[in-house]
Design goal:
The structure is a single chain. Helix 1 packs across helix 4 and helix 4 runs antiparallel to helix 5. The longest helix has 25 residues, at 195-219. The chain is globular, with a radius of gyration of 21 Å. The chain has six helices and 16 strands. The strands form three sheets. A seven-stranded mixed β-sheet has the order 3-6-9-12-14-15-16. Strands 1-4-7-10-13 form a five-stranded parallel β-sheet. A four-stranded parallel β-sheet has the order 2-5-8-11, with no helix packed on it. It is an alpha/beta fold and 220 residues long.
Length: 220
C-alpha cells in the first residue's frame, strides 16, 4: 500500500486516470476507495510506475527487484521496461505478463492470463504495441513486435502474431479478424497468417535449394 501511495504522489495524473478508468469500466467497482484498497491490477501498475523510474535511470537490477516483489503480491508481471499510458485497467489480473518492449496506449483493458510477449525470434523490439482503447480478453496471447490498432478487441484465448488494423475484432487460434468497423468480415476464411505454415514453407524452400546444389555437384 505504501508503494501505491508513493505512486500517487509521483504520478498523480496517471494514477487518478487509472482509478477513474477502473471505476467507469468495472460494474463491480463500488468506489474509488475500494479500487485503491483491493484491486491487484491497480496495485501492480502503481508498482510498475515506480520500478520504471529506476529502469530509466539505468538501475535495472533495482527495477527488476521491485517488479518481482509486485509479481509476488499481485500475480501480475509487468517488466519495468514496458511503456504504459494512462487509464489502464488490468481486471482480475492473475497470470498477466507484459514484456520489456511492450507499448500500451491509453484506456486499455487487459483481463487475466493475458500474455503480451515475444516469439523468441526477434531482437530489439520484441513485444507488441497496443494502441489506445484496445481490449484483450482472458487468456489471449499477443506475441512479437506487432501492432494492435486502436479500438480493437482480442477475443478470449486468441493467439495473435500479426498486425491487427484499428477497430477490429480478432478471435481464434491463429487469430481471425471477424469484424472491422463493426461490420462482419465477408470472407470468414480470412485469417492472420499461421506461423507454423510459414515455417513449413520456409523449410520446403531451403530443401529445394539444397537439392539444386546437390544436383549441380553431381553433374560436375
Amino acid at each position: 500500500m505504501i508503494m501505491v501511495l508513493i505512486s500517487m504522489l509521483l504520478f498523480p495524473r496517471k494514477t487518478f486516470a487509472d482509478l477513474k478508468a477502473i471505476k467507469v469500466k468495472d460494474p463491480a467497482a463500488r468506489s474509488r476507495l475500494g479500487v485503491f484498497l483491493t484491486y491487484s491490477g491497480f496495485h501492480a501498475v502503481a508498482w510498475y510506475r515506480i520500478a520504471r523510474i529506476f529502469y530509466k535511470i539505468k538501475l535495472k537490477f533495482t527495477a527488476r527487484v521491485i517488479s518481482q516483489i509486485s509479481r509476488f503480491f499481485t500475480g501480475i508481471e509487468i517488466h519495468p521496461g514496458a511503456k504504459i499510458g494512462r487509464g489502464i485497467f488490468i481486471d482480475h489480473g492473475m497470470g498477466v505478463v507484459i514484456g520489456e518492449t511492450t507499448e500500451i496506449g491509453d484506456n486499455v483493458v487487459i483481463y487475466q492470463n493475458v500474455t503480451l510477449g515475444g516469439t523468441g525470434k526477434d531482437k530489439g523490439k520484441r513485444h507488441p504495441t497496443l494502441e489506445s482503447n484496445v481490449m484483450v480478453s482472458a487468456g489471449a496471447k499477443v506475441l512479437g513486435p506487432i501492432t494492435i490498432g486502436e479500438n480493437s478487441k482480442i477475443g478470449a484465448n486468441a493467439v495473435v502474431l500479426k498486425d491487427v488494423p484499428s477497430n477490429s475484432t480478432v478471435v481464434g487460434i491463429p487469430g481471425k479478424i471477424v469484424r472491422i468497423d463493426g461490420q462482419r468480415v465477408a470472407d470468414m476464411s480470412q485469417q492472420l497468417p499461421d506461423p507454423m505454415t510459414e515455417e513449413i514453407s520456409e523449410l520446403k524452400e531451403r530443401i529445394e535449394e539444397l537439392e539444386k546444389v546437390l544436383s549441380e555437384i553431381k553433374d560436375k
